[in-house]
Amino acid sequence: MQYLAVYGRALANKVDGLAVVNWLPGAFTENIAKTRDAGLGVVTFDTNDPDPNATMSQAYVGQDFFMAGQRIAQTMIEAGHLKAGDHVVAPVEDPDAFYGTERYRGIKDILDKAGITSERLDATPTMVTALTRLSQYLVGNGQTKAVIGLGSVVTEIAPQAAVEAGLDIPVGGFDLSPAIVDSILAGKMLRRSTPAHITKAICRS
Length: 205
What we know:
The protein is an alpha/beta fold. The protein is built from 7 helices and 8 strands; from the N terminus they run αβαββαβαβαβαβαβ.
């Protein structure tokens, strides 16, 4: 993996420290330990192992994914007027990435308590494929009352997927992209004043 090769070059070049996106639990644990043993500082950011004691990194700067999931689920219930008996789909680019797993765990926690069913959908990181998979899901599950994208790709394509499925439903999601910003500015998405580190955009098809 390219990430792992960076560690070797960093040690050889005697840098003072590393900032690591620890996006796959267990993949970087050994190299982080070697880096710390060599006297270098290591900080993880953006994503981190869900077990805070799993690595020897000195700090993590980023989102609490479970809490973020809880927050956006509550926001969607309120903004989307969801109620018991409704169904929500949560598409994700990579079903193995723990940011999606943890965000969905938080979402499901809140939705379950409200009597709202939910399902996580593997949409793939390819924009065209993600659009096709989500729109086909919505066509086959017309009772779906909302979409919560677990990452930038699925959040970006979700409004169009709802349109293609003929559904007028609220769409929420995480992260930002130029297309999401353009949609907000064009009035295609409903922007909400929520903490930037928790939820980035709420939109309606």
